[in-house]
Each structure stands twice: as C-alpha cells, then as structure tokens.
Write a structure and sequence with these properties.
Its main location: cytoplasm. By secondary structure, this protein is of the alpha/beta class. Helices cover about 45% and strands about 15% of the residues. The protein is globular.
Length: about 375
C-alpha cells in the first residue's frame, strides 16, 4: 500500500507530479488557452462583483491560502484577506453579501474551518470550497467548490494536498484574471504553458533527494531552525518550518526574510541553520543581501536556489537547486526540498513520520 516507499509521507511527496497533473487535467486547456471549472463559471458574477475574497483555513491549508493571496492580488487584482478559521469565527468579523469566502481544507472536516463557513454563510457571503476529500462536510456545506483531486493523503503531514491546493487556487486566480481583464492573453497563455511544465520540474527537483539527505544528516541534531523567504516564497518558509516541527519535533520558525532585522537576527550564531528560499526573480538581490547579513553572523545557510545560480552558491553552506519557473509558480517547486529535508531529518531521528505524536489527520474538534 505504500507502493515500495518506507512511509506514506514519502510516497505522497513522490506523487506530487501526477497529483498536480490531476488537479489541472480537464480544467486547463493549454492549446486553446482556456481554463474552465464549473464551480467558478457558474458563479462568475459573484467572484467578479466581490469587494474582496476572504480565505479561511488552518495549518498547511492556511499556508496555501497565503500563497493564493499573492497570486489573486497580483494577477486578478482582487483584494484578499487570509484568516485562521479559528480566529475568524470568534472575532465578530465584518462580512457582507459582497464578500466571497474561499475555505481551503484537505480533509474537509476541520471543525474551525467548518464553523467559519457557517458563520460566513449566515452573513450572506458566497462560500467556495477547495477540498480534497470528496463528499466531506466542508464540500457539502459550501455553496460551490472545486476538488483538488490529489488522491488520498494518509501521512499526517500534508504534502501533496498543499501543492495541489496551490495549483487549484492558481487556476482560479488565472481564470478570474482573464475575466477581469487584468492579465493579457499572452501572459495568460504563458502561465498555462509554465504550469503545464511544473510536474516535470517537480520530478527533476525530487532527484535532489540524496543530496538533501546528506544535508539532513549534518543538521539533524540541532535544536532550532529558521526558514526565510520573501514574496510568494514567504508562505513556503512558514510551511517548511511547520513540516519540520510536526514530524521531527525540532523547533523551527518561518519568517519573511526582511523581518530578520526586527528581532530574529539576534538568534543567529554558528549553531543556527537557516533555510533561505532564494530563487531567481522574486526579490533575488534583496534575499542575497539578507544572506550576507546572516553569514556575517556565522549562521549556516541552506539555500533553495534556481538551477545555475552562482551568487547564493558562493555565500551559502549548501544549496539545493530547483528548475526555473515563473515567480508565481515557484512555491510548487521550492516546497519540495523542504518536505524532503523534514522527512529525512525525522527518519534519522527515528520519529513516527506518518503519525507524529499529538497530531491527528483531521482536526474535528476545536
Ligand atoms: C500540517 C497539517 C495540518 C493541516 C490542518 C488543516 O501538515 O496537516 O496543519 O493542514 O490541520 O487540515 P485540513 O486541510 O484538512 O483542513
């Protein structure tokens, strides 16, 4: 059932090329330059007339929501707010019929997300679900939605659910951008072509596993990790830190790289490994200068870089390469090495990778 892999988590990491394909199959027609999803087409007016989109989710799904915030605002020019479902439901939020709420949930059973949906519906908002589990409570409770089609995710740590959520939300953002006229037809087509190449590029990224395992072995005994990223890759830094915490039990924090100097830089010494997402495009020069600041304080840098990178390579202690892509699609690649790094550290520490202590796959109580 684990298909020859030692753990479900590793199997699911390796399923990502096909899972991402399954998410866009039939919805993205590259030759015709069309994106079509019934749940979006049928409710196009609601999306286009929305004052804003509020995304509600928990955990890794909330991180996918943060990536979506960048892509919706950047491409479709629709204001987006991303909320922890648990906070949203209890803080008397201002919601009206002019709001569209997107609820993201792999399991479709997360209690706080379900409660946030019910609250939003009671205020007259249109609620759209992005779920993986077909027929789940959230899929049934929402007004409309689209499934990620990632297939069953058994490992408690979410992997393919995250990348397929981002894929689906990217399709929605592109579709709305086209309808809004905020993206040119050539740029739209370019995005589709690049998205179609992502599964192959994920496969290529997975080939770094042995190298990542070697890095895992060097750092497996440290007690703290930092993860940094900017722009589209800020949420990836948060997700990388969460993945390490939950399966290895090593303390890790994710930050936007520029926030370093507002506090966390005090933590840096020769014992602190810092994973920095430093791909080309996406504020590259600024990230390079953040890396220089860390190096001058003797921190250890593990850089996630674009193939052929030289600048970061010259500064970092280790680099892991990912193929080049559009900045907006880069989280689909930069996430992969972070999943593998957490996985291998956890395995080396003899952790129960698929069922970490104190965690459940669906959090059906608040
Ligand atoms: C992290 C993880 C959790 C879930 C969160 C939301 O790896 O699995 O943080 O992402 O509990 O779950 P869903 O997406 O099922 O609502």
């Amino acid at each position: 059932e684990k298909g020859g892999y030692d753990h479900f988590m590793l199997k699911e990491i390796y399923e990502q090329p096909s899972a991402i394909k399954d998410t866009y199959r039939g919805r993205m027609l590259v030759d015709e330059a069309i994106i079509k999803m019934a749940g979006v087409e049928d409710n196009m007016k609601k999306f286009l007339n929305a004052n804003r989109i509020i995304i509600v989710a928990c955990g890794t799904s909330w991180h996918a929501g943060l990536v979506a915030e960048y892509i919706f605002e950047d491409l479709a020019r629709i204001p987006v707010e991303v909320e922890y479902a648990s906070e949203f439901r209890y803080r008397n939020p201002v919601i009206t019929e002019k709001d569209v709420v997107i609820a993201i949930s792999q399991s479709g059973e997360t209690a706080d997300t379900l409660a946030a949906i019910k609250l939003a519906k009671s205020k007259g908002a249109f609620v759209f679900g992005v779920c993986n589990v077909v027929g789940s409570s959230i899929a049934r409770e929402t007004n409309a939605g689209a499934y990620t089609h990632a297939g069953p995710e058994i490992g408690v740590a979410s992997t393919k659910a995250f990348t397929t959520q981002i894929t689906l939300l990217t399709l929605i953002a592109l579709r709305l951008a086209r309808a809004n006229g905020t993206i040119s037809s050539s740029d739209f087509r370019h995005h589709l072509i690049e998205l179609e190449m992502i599964p192959e590029k994920v496969k290529k990224t997975l080939e770094s596993e042995a190298h990542i395992k070697m890095i895992a072995d060097i750092y497996k005994d440290v007690h703290h990790f930092l993860y940094l990223g900017r722009g589209y890759n800020f949420p990836v830094a948060l997700e990388g830190a969460l993945k390490l915490k939950e399966i290895s039990y090593i303390h890790a924090e994710g930050y936007p790289a520029a926030e370093m100097k507002h506090g966390p830089i005090a933590l840096i010494d020769e014992n602190m490994p810092i994973v920095v997402i430093a791909t080309k495009r996406g504020h590259y020069e600024k990230v390079v200068s953040n890396i220089q600041e860390i190096k001058s304080r003797k921190g250890k840098i593990i850089g996630i870089v674009t193939e052929g990178d030289v600048e970061v390579k010259a500064l970092a202690d280790h680099v892991i390469e990912v193929p080049e892509t559009l900045e907006s699609l880069s989280p689909l690649l930069t996430t992969i090495p972070l999943q593998l790094l957490s996985y291998h550290i956890a395995v080396m520490l003899n952790r129960n990778v698929d069922q970490p202590r104190n965690l459940a796959k669906s959090v059906t109580v608040e």
